[in-house]
Amino acid sequence: MSRSLIRHRLTPFFAARIRQNHRLFASSSSALPQPQPEPSSPSSDEAVFLTENCVKRMKELQADEARGKMLRLSIEAGGCSGFQYNFLLDDKTDADDRVFERDGVKLVVDKISLDFVKGATVDYVEELIRSAFQVSTNPSAVGGCSCKSSFMVK
Predict the structure, then answer these.
(1) What does the pLDDT read at residue 40?
(2) What is the pLDDT of residue 23?
């Protein structure tokens, strides 16, 4: 195929994706002024849970190099199943974040990602080939890859 033919076929696709992302970000930013529920008392079906192993590992990290850091869970498009979990240590929260806490350890999830992980459980798993935080159960997922780093939504 010629370059111009490829460009004419791909341009509408990318333009549609950009418009879709713009609508997504515009709708999330327009929801910011609305009152947020208290982070300490989320309903159980909207909560994200931390296992004992997850809390233990976060306390170990906080004792060493991650003082005052929180575990942030976000969802990104990609991975072998459509969406992937992304974990990082963060020291700040944004206006649209929900904070879930267990035994002094905080998990931060942004509003858009929360729709994908409501009712999920975050665990810390040590295996021969890797050690990592992972979502061990997710009621919003119908399937995923065997490494539990990506998932498909219902």
Answers:
(1) 42
(2) 54
Residue 36 has a pLDDT of 37
Secondary structure class of 36 (helix, strand, coil) = coil
Number of C-beta neighbours around residue 74 at 10 A: 18
pLDDT tens-digit profile of 66-82?
A: 788 999 999 998 777 78
How far is Cα 91 from Cα 49, in angstroms, rounded to an integer? 20
Q: From CA 137, how far away is CA 144, in angstroms rounded?
A: 11
Supply 143's token pair: 């399937």
Q: How far apart are the first and last CA of the chain?
A: 37
Q: What is the pLDDT of residue 19?
A: 58
Please give the helix or strand (H or E) that residue 153 lies within, else none.
strand 150-153
Task: Quote the pTM value.
Answer: 0.67
Neighbour count for residue 147 (Cβ, 10 Å): 13
What does the DSSP 8-state code read for residue 33? T
The SS3 of residue 102 is strand
Rounded distance between C-alpha atoms, residue 22 and residue 16, angstroms: 10
Question: Taking the CB of residue 48, how many other CB atoms lie within 10 A of it?
Answer: 22
